[in-house]
Amino acid sequence: MVRGTLADTYVAAIQHELVELPPDATRVGVVRRPTSWFHAAVDENRPELGPPADLLESMRDAEEDMKMQGLCEEGAHNAAWDQVGFGEAYREYLENADEAQAAVAALDDRLSAGESLALVCYENTEKKRCHRTVLKEFLETQT
Q1: Which of 14, 57, 110, 135 is the most exposed place for a label (fewest CB within 10 A)?
Q2: Domain residue ranges of the chain, discontinuous segments joined by +
Q3: Taking the model in full, what pTM does it have?
Q4: What percent of the chain has pLDDT over 70?
């Protein structure tokens, strides 16, 4: 069995047809609190693969502080990511939280069975750092 492909994108790229995903890819949202319009752009959502609420909150607080210091939205976002150690904290969540481990294992099983998946959230990674790129790298190391 050939392992399925793993892609990632953001919801606006799907809505505005700015991305070409494999035609057979299942669009898997990885958002803790999706909006109704987010659900319309994905085939399913795995909220347990969204960052934990406390990590998101510390990120938002740091981002607001950075904006108050005069940084633009993207600059504040990326500086806050570094300040709170977001990537490392999210990776630790994926490795240690039971709900995340079960969800990662389920996606890995699907990839191993040949299903193609596209991870979807809100951030355009050309401008802002995003947990889904950490998740994609994490899944790619599961093989």
Answers
A1: 57
A2: 6-140
A3: 0.93
A4: 99
